[in-house]
Design brief:
Layout (H helix, E strand, L loop, with lengths): L3 H5 L2 E14 L2 E19 L18 E6 L3 E4 L5 E3 L7 E4 L2 E10 L6 E8 L4
Length: 125
């Protein structure tokens, strides 16, 4: 099914960071160079009703659902190189000055033309 028109109506610019930091034993540690991209993703906050569907108590209304068209692209912030860009588990999405870690990937392309992810707000103490 073609949901691209609906999803594209809600695309918003975000920064996607791949690599650089990894969550280990309760804290983020540097694991090398990171690549940063600008891209457009449909971002929706989880509702209280949806929280019952996902790992009880792990997600909050501060966390996000991400809808990404199958043909999504992003531009490297350093080189401006345009590439095909679908988030991966562990990527960091910067949205409204907050970081969110991409989790729970769901490839729905066997039914439609988009990918769905959850993204947990990164809280640094």
């Amino acid at each position: 099914m073609d949901f691209s028109g609906f999803i594209r109506d809600y695309l918003t610019p975000v920064t996607l960071k791949r690599g650089g930091k990894k969550f280990v034993n309760g804290e983020y540690v540097d694991d090398g160079d990171a690549d940063e991209y600008t891209t457009d993703i449909a971002v929706i906050h989880l509702t209280p009703e949806e929280l019952n569907e996902y790992d009880g108590g792990f997600y909050t209304i501060q966390d996000l659902k991400l809808f990404v068209p199958e043909d999504n692209t992003g531009a490297n912030t350093e080189t401006d190189e345009e590439i095909s860009l679908i988030p991966k588990e562990g990527d960091i999405i910067r949205f409204q000055n907050n970081d969110f870690e991409v989790q729970n990937p769901q490839n729905n392309t066997h039914l439609s033309d988009f990918h769905k992810f959850l993204a947990k707000k990164v809280v640094v103490k």
